[in-house]
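Quick start: read one record
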Amino acid sequence: MGSLAMVERVVAFGDELRRHVPRIQIFHDFTGVKGYQSEARKVLVGWGVDNKDSIAATHVLFQSRIVSMGVALARHLLPGQLEGYSNRGHFDAALARAIEQGP
């Protein structure tokens, strides 16, 4: 379950990264997440909106239809910045490209 406690840890980690790197790429492997608390989604998307200038892209791998719908909703608030994947190979390829490019 995508909980508020989980999101708070993700946000804290993202804030720490942003102190060291001007723009970050985010990769969330949410394949084990079957649902989420709506407050958790609001906080995570709100953080993305508030920090959009320092986020190059956010990539989300999912299996759950509920998570897929959350990603689709968030995409409207983060146009051009959020990519959703239901295929691990495509997600892994995007991650490999990001690692190759470096910070």
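The longest strand covers residues 55-62.
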